[in-house]
């Protein structure tokens, strides 16, 4: 995998981990959920880009499915905190499984596994804090 892509992916964890470390600050949850929603939307965009590039991979169902992370992220921002955190956590887990089934790039799978496990741990920490 491209070194820059790996470093940027790891750097993308900084807001997740940093805001989780500051969870006792009342303003941190809003920033955490907003950032989480943005990144979840980005994950759908990865598949959109692949579908547009690879004509063998492109179909209407797959293009529509690429929109699901953005819609779930947007919905999460309108829900109560506990429900939103649960929806985001489940969305990340489900999209990770979808990624694994659809994109057979070993380096990408390894990076996504690492990133997703940290993101899930952060969401789980927030859920534990709020419940």
TrEMBL record:
The chain crosses the membrane at residues 6-24, 31-51, 71-98. The keyword Ligase does not apply. Keywords: Membrane, Transmembrane, Transmembrane helix. It comes from the Bacteria. Pfam families: DUF3429. The keyword Transmembrane applies. PANTHER family: TRANSMEMBRANE PROTEIN 69. This is DUF3429 domain-containing protein. It comes from Nitrincola lacisaponensis.
């Amino acid at each position: 995998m491209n070194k820059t892509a790996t470093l940027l992916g790891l750097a993308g964890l900084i807001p997740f981990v940093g805001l989780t470390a500051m969870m006792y600050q009342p303003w941190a949850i809003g920033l955490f959920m907003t950032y989480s929603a943005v990144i979840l939307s980005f994950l759908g965009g990865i598949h959109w880009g692949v579908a547009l590039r690879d004509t063998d991979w492109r179909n209407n169902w797959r293009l529509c499915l690429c929109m699901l992370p953005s819609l779930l992220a947007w919905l999460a921002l309108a829900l109560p905190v506990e429900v939103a955190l649960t929806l985001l956590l489940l969305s990340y887990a489900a999209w990770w499984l979808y990624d694994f089934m659809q994109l057979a790039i070993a380096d990408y799978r390894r990076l996504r596994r690492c990133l997703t496990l940290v993101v899930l741990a952060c969401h789980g920490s927030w859920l534990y804090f709020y419940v």
